[in-house]
Amino acid sequence: MAAIEQVPNVVFKTRVRDESVPGPNPYRWEDKTTKDIFAGKKVVVFSLPGAFTPTCSSNHLPRYEELYDEFKAQGVDQIICVSVNDAFVMFQWGKQIGAKNVYLLPDGSGEFTRKMGMLVDKSNLGFGYRSWRYSMLVNDGKIEKMFVEPDFADNCPTDPFEVSDADTMLAYLKGGKSAGVSEPRREFVG
Question: ∠ CA(107), CA(5), CA(111), 5° rounding?
Answer without folding.
Answer: 20
